[in-house]
Amino acid sequence: MKRGFGFLLSLGLAITCWLPAQGASSVADDFKKDTSVGVRAAESLSEVTGIAISPLLGVGAIGAYKYYRTKPEDRAGLIWYAQPWFWSVALAIVGVCFLKDSLGPAIPTTLKKPLDVLELFENKLSALIATGAIIPIALEVFEAVKPHVSSQLDLAGAHFASAGLNTLGEIVLVPVALLIYGVVWLVSHTINVLVLISPFTSLDTILKSFRTAVLGSVVGAQALGNGIGAAWALIIVLVCLLLAPWAFRTVVFGTVFACDLITFSRKRFTPSTTSNWLFTARRLGEAPHRAYGRLTRTESGELTFTWRPWLILPARTEKLPPGRYILGRGLIYSEILRVEGEHTPDVFNLPPRCCGHEDALAKIYGLQEIRPIGLRAAWAWFKNLFTARPAMA
Hints:
Layout (H helix, E strand, L loop, with lengths): L1 H16 L6 H10 L2 H18 L1 H15 L14 H19 L6 H31 L28 H30 L3 H24 L1 H38 L11 E6 L11 E6 L5 E5 L8 E4 L4 E6 L5 E5 L6 E4 L8 H7 L5 E3 L1 H12 L8
Parallel strand pairs: 5-8
Antiparallel strand pairs: 1-2, 1-7, 2-3, 3-4, 5-6, 6-7
Helix pairs in contact: 3-4, 3-6, 3-7, 3-8, 3-9, 4-5, 4-6, 6-7, 7-8, 7-9, 8-9
């Protein structure tokens, strides 16, 4: 976390200290005479942060704002997200999602969860679409100094600002804007994942309200002043940077579960006799909570878990401590538990594709007991109330 904080701080200092090739003193004098560059940089930071928190709402609102602030005769030349065909549809979809959330307690869970799955993928698609708006927003910072910047690549025909790629500022600025956008969106997207896996509609409302409040605070801070808005947006970015590793694992967890549920992958899934993908339910050695990896049983009967940080870094392997492990059969997903006296803490969460394959998995990993958990355990307890049990021999 300290390295990530230092990295972002270094980038901020690099942007602050950047000077175009025409000379430091000349640009400093121009900046003192015309502060529109600094103002535009502050506005861009707030805009990128707001879009990342809620991509479809952010791009749609900014597009509608640009459209109504532009003279009617000039609206035909506006960028794509400022055209009515885009922002009207975007805001309509946001309105439908808001209506679903406002009626959350009144909608049955069996109907609301499929809608939450659709919203999860809608947020991912919106993030990809909104990425196309981040680059022009970042390059608009240099609109005020465009006459002083030599343009090597003119993207005005594609509705992008003219970008001088030979200058260090523009080379650094776009990646930094995309980094800020990606980190903030990653943390914001975890709310969709938490809503999906949460069994309580009241918690869903709290999570969605919290995200709306954060987005509102960005808009409110920007309204108070460009400096205040930029400072508050930078605080949000730094917090998101610290939460990024946890958010990444949570997003992977929710995406895998959602894909398994909507594609009914358990009907096509066949457990591997060597290793199978699953998630850690708690910290296991160096493997953090919700690490995605493979569980393998060695020839000596030991269970080992192999995972990759951020899914692409070098693989690491953890041996499970000795003990008695059992398999818990759940309604939506199953778990591998460790028996510790009267307690059975969960060690791994199996993806929904494994539902219905508990017997095969127990045989592969040498788990001698399968017991119901979650709703299945509740149903088994309820059924036993009205079912006669056989007499003991």
